[in-house]
Structure formats: C-alpha cells, structure tokens
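One such given next:

>
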Amino acid sequence: MLRAVFVRTLKAGVTYEQFMEAWVPEDVDDYPAKVSVSRNVADDRQVITILELDMSVAEFEDKRTALTRPDALERLAEIVDTTELTGLYEDVFDNKDL
C-alpha cells in the first residue's frame, strides 16, 4: 500500500470546492485510489490530501498522470499559497501487525 501525501495552504478566500476542481480528474469512474482531503482545525486554509494506492511504486509511476488533471499544477498554482509537504510513502506497519 502506498500513500501520496500533500499538505497545502490555500490562498485566502479559496473554497474546498475550488481546490477539488483544480486537481480531481473529470473521469473518476475507475479512479485507482481512495482519496481523503482534510482541513487543519487550527487553520482552515491548510488542507492535507492523502491518496491510498493499492499498488507498487512502479505501478504508481505508470498511473501517476491519471491521478490528477493534466493541467493540475497550473490550476493549483492559482489557488495554493504554499505546499509544506509532498511525499510518496510505503506502508511498513499498521495495526493488523499488532
């Protein structure tokens, strides 16, 4: 299991709907990930996006472009003030291991 994680601060006045419209692909019928977007309770402009991907790193590299809109980086640049964290993480432990 992989997780792609992004922590971003939205520009003032940007809505969560605008954020979702900036990167969610138009066709999500066969979307290969579970996605959650959460806001920071101390700063509602800061959002964390987590994509859970049941695939290998090699498969992720092959499917990476299908996970967002082709122009997502440009669209996000218009509404995101800063990106504090970007990373791809591989599971090494979860509570099933207890």
About this structure: Helices lie at 16-23, 57-63, 72-79.
